[in-house]
Write a structure and sequence with these properties.
It is built from four helices and ten strands, in the order H-H-H-E-E-E-E-E-E-H-E-E-E-E. By secondary structure, it is of the alpha+beta class. The chain has one domain. A hairpin with a 2-residue loop joins strand 7 and strand 8 (130-138). The longest helix is centred in the N-terminal third of the chain and has 14 residues, at 48-61.
């Protein structure tokens, strides 16, 4: 039996959680690039080839949740080691962008994003509604992170914000 498998079994028996490695749970590179503002659908809006690639990839991996307009993965999918609960391909909160809600605490999602970007968030705040952070990369690209819920079923929203829809 392989060492990693033995460690996973031992951890399960001990009641411990073992984080999935990126090698075992490869992120969708296109989704990750959009979430971290490396790519922006606003930049290739109007380019029929890029738009069609985006739509095809999106339809192959997600289905729309009719109740709230979000999209959910067709099969279990993770990003930066966190399970995707919902995806919003055209918004982040009240703004225009690309975002995801993951099953992870705010602090875990923040640490994963900072490691991925190799940059720390520049503006963070805590309020009674929850924590939030952002890092502006350019005028139309800001990586944002917002606490959704805490506790056992913690959820965090993060993604790339382009602009506020007026």
């Amino acid at each position: 039996m392989k060492t990693a498998a033995m460690l996973a079994i031992a951890a399960l028996l001990a009641g411990l959680a073992v984080p999935q490695s990126h090698a075992q749970n490869k992120d969708d590179a296109g989704v990750l690039r959009l979430l971290t503002c490396q790519d922006s659908w606003m930049e290739w809006k109007g380019d029929p080839i890029e738009e069609q690639k985006f739509v095809d990839r999106h339809k192959a991996n997600f289905t729309q949740n009719e109740s709230d307009g979000s999209f959910v993965p067709i099969k279990p999918m993770s990003i930066l080691g966190h399970r995707i609960a919902q995806l919003y391909p055209q918004s982040i909160g009240m703004g225009i962008g690309y975002s995801v809600i993951v099953n992870a605490s705010f602090d875990a999602a923040k640490a994963s994003l900072e490691k991925q970007m190799d940059k720390r968030f520049t503006r963070c705040q805590a309020a009674s509604e929850g924590k939030s952070c952002e890092r502006e990369l350019s005028k139309l690209k800001t990586v944002m992170l917002m606490e959704g819920s805490r506790g056992k079923d913690a959820k965090t929203l993060f993604g790339c914000y382009y602009l506020y829809e007026k």
